[in-house]
Amino acid sequence: MLNFLIDNKCGVVKNEKTTLEIIEKYLNLSFTENKPISLYMVADFRFFDSLIKILPLLKKLFDKDLLSQFSIIISSRTAVNPKEFLFKLKSDAISLDKNDFFILNLLNNSGVLRFRVNYKDNINTLLYLIKYNNNYYSFTGNTSFSPDNHFFNSINFLTPVLTPQSKKSIHFLLFKKLWNLSDPRINNLRIINYLKIFANAEVINLNPRNFIAVILKSISKDYLVKNISTDLSQIAEYKNMGYYSCIEKMQKYGSVIFANSIGLSELYISSMIIKFYFEKNKKSLVICSKESEQTWEQNFIKTGLKKSFARFINRSELQQNSFSSESISDIDLIIIDNAEYFSISKERNNRQKHIETILLNNPDAHILMISKNIINDSLYDLITIYNMFSRGKYKKILKSDGVDNEVNNLIDDIEKKNISNKTIESIKKILNTFMVKIEWTNLDSIVDPLQQDLNKPSITTVKYAYDHDISMKIYEKLIPAISDFKFEYCKLKFNGYHEDENLTNWYKWRLCRTIESSLVAFTESLKKLIIKTEITLQLISDDSHINNIIHFFTEDQIINIKNSFEQANDEQKKLIIDGLNSDISILNNLLLSSQSIKYLENRDEKVTNLLKILNTESKPTVIFSESDDTIAYLKRRLIEYGNLKSATISGETTGIDGDDILTRDNTAIEEICSEFEQGLYNILITNDSIAEEIKLPRAKVIINFDMPINPSSLSKRNRIASAQPNSNKTKIYNFQSDRRIDKEILLFETLKIPLHELIAYYGIDFILWSLDEKHINEISESHTGDFYLLTKEYKDFFAKKNTDEIKSKFTPSLSKEDITLREFIKFLNISEETLKLSISNFKRPIYTSLFGQTDGLFVIYKTSTGIKTTKNLEFSNLRTDYSINETTVAEIEKSIKSSLISEDDGEFDFIIGIIKYCKE
Q: What are the φ and ψ backbone dihedral angles of 736, each rounded to 5 degrees?
């Protein structure tokens, strides 16, 4: 009884073998034991692609007079006459070269090799029969002789026939019957003469469909064939761009940052990428929050995957000291969801340490980071990411492409505080290398502008301010208090006392931003900070029981706080205690000042303006806020105002101090959105954690109660009503704070925030906007104050503009070459099955000829450093009869060799394929 499955290793069970391996096993036995063997096969097309792999072994057996007979019936399910059969045989036979043909011809002339063809009886079962040492072995089933030649999304296997091995099974009699039924007109001589033509050809001419299929396999871009859904619309093609771009960058550089891209459904596309790897028998690891595992599982179901097809680790596990990251190995794809939560440039906590260990144990694994904004508090984030990505064989590629040099320039500029235009160009080069961030404006490359609906949403800016009493008691006291606030408890959360001015400034900026959300969000933030600081003071003072501590700190953070304090000397301990007491005093004073304002909520002009909009519009409305406290506050105010029914979605956010707030129930989110669409609620209040794939076409009004800094996040909000650009007429209201109460500029000036930190807070888009819209010619530290002032204009700009009108300043994520290949794939109807049936190795150049805009050549060739192209691929749907001979190939080889001038170019090896363009 066999303990393995013969299924050409399609990934069903652990113990698998290919048909080719079974045949090789018996051939090797014959050779080592010096006993005769005969083979009888009913095979399908692509037979020769695998036959050439055993020809040397057949030759050895023949030389020892051990190969008695090799009879093959080639079965065709589609050819209906000899002419069609010979045409199909061409695509199979061109894998042979002169040496292969020499062996075949030798076996044929000696009478050992015999061919027959059967295309009339529609044989659906393949036979592999072996006579060895006077014993008979039979295998029957649907598994092809070629490991790559199996039906798409199907499982085929061979079954050994259990008969007395000293007697022929009925299958040997069946083979004889099929042999007699085969067409005698296509005999050995005719097939051998036909094979000779292709085996002796120096250059192979293929039709465009076969040529593109071969090239896709040769340059490892078979992923471009996959449509990630059954939807074949242009918008679906836009989603395909994200899928293709991520795989392309991982194939080339080993890593990719899947940034906030509107309409792409990042988790769905990432699930499809896992499926792509799974189909290649590769293992995947997903690192995400415990709450988001539900969403991942839902996307797995949509893509036909089981959750068991990938390993999941949640972030809270990584935070634990006891987590064993050393045991995670043999991973091919590592996905880090919401990578910004890992606070990469901050003190190395357990998360970072465990991730570093996982990457170290899996040096060849591809990395996919999903992130809203990969740069958080410092440009050092980008450098740390690069160090994660620059490893193994990809290190040399990144150096060759000049990325390594750009990173060194960036490090030098940050350390010397010499941020300039050159620095921005370095950042752009690094991000363009790794980042996939597809905007609606990228549709220009795949969608006819005339087909785009111009029914753009209307945008209204809603300005608000507060009265003198509120301004004086809250806003005027805000910056002096925040500037003195030390965030002392945060310095103890990591392993050892950690003082980082950049990190503390980031916390202060986030606290300042909560007041832009709502006054209630600000006061609630103060209360939480007071509790955390008081708990920290208690933890380091005694070991007494503290109520509800687990709601504010993780178990590991509690241990770290205690250990960090214990490790400090007496002088440091006094400074820590003084700092904590000072922080509590500052926070209490701010809170008391806020609470001293009578009827504060009734005087909240921002909420008053919101209620006016809801009363005027009276339409299905989605309200966005960055703060969960604001969401709860607005729900309560709507009930108090007029018993307005609303649903809320919150959770999966980051606190001011960078800690996770994970209270999201993804199942409930889908139910709430469904109820909104059914009309059970007219108002939905949510944060930015709502899944990308959720669309609410019933919504007619979008209200951005507080504005995100990331323009992609704003565009995602504004697109919640539709999956298509500009397809649904909606009204958008953007709340814009009055300059008198926007204190960010004063905070930057007070803290003297360096330019590289400001870029991290607001993103590279902010600097590019400053250069483009404000016509700033020079970026330098001496102009940092000018950029402080521009932050307000930047926020106001997005409060007034449709973000889709702003062209991306980054290079489109999908290369021109890939877009052109997609055009070929769609026009030529190339499918995954087409690739499986195409030959991947011709042992000599292949070519096709097309009409083009100009005369020229597109060449794919191999060097010692990898497969390269001439980068001038052009789509054409018209074929020419132009021929390329070996003289032309020699001239092309000479030209390519002369162009390889650097060490990174490598030494020329051979030409894979050529497209000859002839001007019409």
A: -130, 120
